[in-house]
Amino acid sequence: MNAQRGVLLLLIAALLFLSFQLVQPYLSFVIGAVLLAYVLAPLQTRLEARVRSTTAAALLVVAVTLALLVPFVGLSVRVAGEAVTIARELAADDVAAGLQAPEAWLNERLARDIDLSAEIAARLEGLGETVLGTAPDLVASLTHLTIGLGLSVFLLFYLLRDGNRLVEWLQAITPLPQSVQETLYARLDSMTRAVLLGHVLVAIIQGGIAGLGLLVVGISNVLFWTVIMILLALLPFIGAFLVWGPAAVWLVSTGQTLAGVFLFIYGTIVVGVSDEYLRPVIVDRYANISPAVIVIGVIGGLSAFGVMGLFIGPIIVGALKASLEVFDEQYDRL
Prior knowledge:
The mean pLDDT is 79. α2 (27-48) crosses α3. The chain has 334 residues and is mainly α. The chain has helices at 3-23, 27-48, 53-91, 94-98, 100-110, 116-133, 135-173, 178-216, 222-232, 241-253, 257-283, 291-305, 309-329. This is AI-2E family transporter.
């Protein structure tokens, strides 16, 4: 490598580093826009057969924004309302009477004097102080979120409109044989579909099925707990059990033994089997991903990218796995 090539590579490396610093504060939003463009790419191709690419991209962006924003706002308002209702019920005087049965059950089993009302009141008081103390940070986070969402919409439009040219440019500058690139992109495509269409869809189905069980046994604020279970269902092995399991115990402890036993059996068989059956059927259709990959990706993704890491993390780890496999298979051609 001569000096001129070295200087050019050094300049490219420096500019890449600086570019990453520019994008890094909103990296999760950028990656989210890329993933959404990937999902919408087939629709963009179909629309381009009838209208211009710019018109097709604009229509998709408007449609997706409304499709995501309207239900999200409605669901957020509903969930927030139910959360407030839960808080009010916990603060109401009649809650103390409702907690007498669980307190007696715990005192009998643990041989200890447990005051659930006092414990809940103390936790709520500490939570209120924490919320008041973090109000400035909350405003800053909302500002960051607003800018990030606007950036995502902006990027989504251009990724849909110019996505094919971007892919062609990446293929042209990538210093790999065409056959290796085709194998790599096909493997990455299967891995991404497995995560987006597999685990996310399974989480929604599993959370919905578990929410139906809570509705049958008469648990209040079902929508709130269903949303929580959908998010938890993105975690293999653990999932919605963290909600319906304690709910079954609570029903038994309050004297609703039949309902509690039904919920436990329903959760173990119906919810559990839905996870064990649907996940292999949907995911293995596109790629063979070990649950360990999903767990590592989800936990690491949450730490690195926040909520978006639930989707980004498994894709990154899965992409690494696919890249290593392609490297091993195509080593002789490199």
